[in-house]
Amino acid sequence: MPRAQILVTLIAALAAACAPPGPTVSRGEGLYMRHCASCHGSDARGGGARAEALSVAVPGLTGLAAAHGGTFPSEAVIATIYGYRGKQLGATMPEFGPLFDGPTVGWITPDGDVIETPEALVALTRYLASVQDEI
Question: Could you count the other beta carbons within 10 Å of the beta carbon of residue 80?
């Protein structure tokens, strides 16, 4: 890894460690209940009240880590919720990006990159990571 990239990764990690607490799981749970539970169910297993009316099966969200070798796919989750993947796949899931626009935080990707991401989107993703089934 080039020296500059190592330095950027180290600075990002130190900044994250010294930063005030970021988006909380409890805030994410509130966002989930408000925007997601009607389709994905209050238990995130896919049985929400609106699920039957849709033309496609609504996936459960508690097995995402298991389906990805034990690692929660945070980048894919963020992209899907925001709306990037939904557009590409012609999915039924609406774009939620505009609902989550607002204050941002530096989210560190699994590759060590720091991406300014809406705080609410990070909170929701942290909540989903917290409800994963045991592997």
Answer: 19
